[in-house]
């Protein structure tokens, strides 16, 4: 087991690489709004228009549009380079969000909210671009790349842990549009600064007739199915926890309780990054998914046996500790299976699967809450975790065969 000094040295080593600090800080600024945009839009629309149904429908449409457009944007990033694509894509997204804000503020018809918010689908996968830089810089250092991937996952958890809270604070204490305005400013500033770090940018790879989508890589479809089920865990946990807190008269604490799950994942991710992985990622991924499924029984047991929000928070903290290792290992496997020159597209497909899973999980969790109550609804994230295991095992089997075939002498 590594000591605290060893863990610190592992991460310090990453930032001795020339340019690493600059692109990491700028990417953090660009990525932070990802946890703010959704809650900002919901708060803005519901606060001004007085309709949560409209707010939910608008944000859901943006989520679907992002799932469709995201892989195409990532393909252009691989083909033309990060700076050439990320900057115009971000500016288009920012204009769409600003247009949404103006339509909401000035009372434009409801359909304009959907039309303007669709433009936000061009937002580039900033986390994927940062991981692609690490993969380029550390292509001959698997242990260092494992640490970098763990760090990136911890950053993701930090953004989604603090982003919604800050957005809600801005919208509540200033004015309904404040969260959206700050999100836009951070995103544009961060992406412009990130794109300016050209020394660490991976080279572009032109597509040829032989270039195939990463979806056709052996082992990729079942891996993406596992990501889809993992996303359903997140989506159902959010809805169910809000409903559980509301049923016990503590709705205001729902965000803090959910943040414990992200905090557990963040801490586990940092520790996991300092540990030398045993075995290849295709073998570790099913084990991590199995651990995630096992720990996901804790929120259900805490809710059913105690009915206490404090016990639930502790259960979510522990359950979250399996999330980061699962995501880190899954992303490592995505990097390994994705053909050369298509890494941004491959990782964006994984994010797209997660977003689709979040949408499905939210719908299933909400339905379960309505028909069986919030306590029983904790069976949904448990079932989603169980559903992630079979495709992970299938992906392991197919991935092993594919990698062995590539390694075999001609």
List keywords for this structure.
globular, Growth Hormone, Chain: A, mainly alpha, about 400 residues
What do you see in this structure?
With 410 residues, this protein is mainly alpha-helical. It has two domains: 18-206, MFS general substrate transporter like domains (Growth Hormone, Chain: A), CATH 1.20.1250; 208-410, Up-down Bundle (Growth Hormone, Chain: A), CATH 1.20.1250.20. 77% of the residues lie in helices and 0% in strands. The protein has 17 helices and no strands. It is globular. The model has no long low-confidence stretch (mean pLDDT 83).
Poorly predicted regions are none
Using the coordinates shown, work out and report the CATH topology of the largest domain.
Growth Hormone, Chain: A
User: Can you tell me the number of structural domains?
Assistant: 2
Estimated radius of gyration? 21 Å
- Number of beta strands: 0
Tally of alpha and pi helices: 17
Q: CATH superfamily assignment of the largest domain?
A: MFS general substrate transporter like domains
Termini separation:
40 Å
Q: From the 3D coordinates, which CATH architecture of the largest domain would you assign?
A: Up-down Bundle
H-E order: HHHHHHHHHHHHHHHHH
Q: Please state the overall shape, judged from the principal axes of the Cα atoms.
A: globular
Question: What share of the residues does DSSP label as strand, in percent?
Answer: under 5%
Q: What share of the residues lie within helices? A: over 70%
The computed structural class is mainly alpha
Q: What integer is the average pLDDT? A: 83
InterPro entries: MFS, MFS_trans_sf
Keywords: Membrane, Transmembrane, Transmembrane helix
Protein name: MFS transporter
């Amino acid at each position: 087991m590594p000591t605290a000094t060893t863990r610190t040295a592992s991460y310090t080593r990453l930032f001795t690489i020339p340019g690493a600090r600059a692109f990491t800080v700028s990417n953090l600024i660009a990525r932070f709004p990802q946890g703010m945009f959704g809650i900002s839009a919901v708060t803005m629309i519901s606060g001004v228009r007085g309709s949560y149904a409209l707010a939910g429908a608008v944000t859901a449409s943006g989520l679907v549009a992002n799932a469709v457009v995201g892989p195409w944007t990532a393909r252009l990033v691989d083909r033309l380079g990060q700076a050439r694509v990320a900057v115009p894509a971000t500016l288009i997204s920012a204009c769409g969000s600003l247009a949404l804000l103006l339509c909401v503020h000035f009372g434009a018809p409801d359909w304009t909210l959907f039309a303007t918010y669709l433009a936000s689908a061009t937002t580039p996968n900033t986390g994927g671009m940062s991981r692609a830089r690490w993969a380029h810089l550390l292509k001959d250092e698997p242990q260092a790349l494992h640490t970098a991937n763990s760090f990136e996952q911890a950053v993701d958890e930090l953004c989604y842990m603090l982003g919604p809270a800050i957005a809600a604070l801005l919208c509540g204490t200033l004015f309904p549009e404040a969260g959206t305005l700050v999100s836009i400013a951070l995103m544009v500033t961060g992406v412009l600064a990130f794109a300016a770090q050209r020394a660490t940018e991976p080279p572009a790879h032109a597509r040829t007739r032989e270039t195939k989508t990463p979806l056709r890589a052996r082992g990729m479809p079942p891996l993406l199915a596992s990501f889809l089920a993992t996303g359903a865990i997140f989506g159902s946990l959010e809805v169910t926890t809000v409903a559980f807190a509301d049923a016990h008269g503590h709705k205001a604490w729902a965000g803090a309780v959910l943040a414990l799950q992200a905090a557990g994942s963040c801490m586990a991710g940092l520790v996991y990054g300092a540990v030398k992985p045993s075995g290849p990622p295709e073998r570790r991924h099913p084990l991590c998914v199995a651990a995630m499924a096992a720990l996901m029984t804790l929120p259900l047991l805490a809710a059913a046996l105690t009915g206490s929000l404090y016990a639930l928070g502790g259960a979510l903290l522990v359950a979250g500790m399996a999330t980061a290792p699962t995501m880190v290992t899954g992303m490592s496997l995505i990097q390994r299976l994705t053909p050369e020159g298509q890494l941004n597209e491959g990782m964006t497909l994984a994010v797209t699967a997660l977003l689709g899973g979040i949408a499905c999980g939210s719908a299933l969790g909400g339905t379960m809450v309505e028909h069986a109550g919030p306590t029983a609804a904790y069976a949904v994230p448990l079932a989603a975790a169980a559903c992630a295991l079979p495709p992970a095992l299938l992906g392991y089997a197919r991935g092993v065969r594919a990698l062995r075939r590539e390694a075999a002498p001609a």
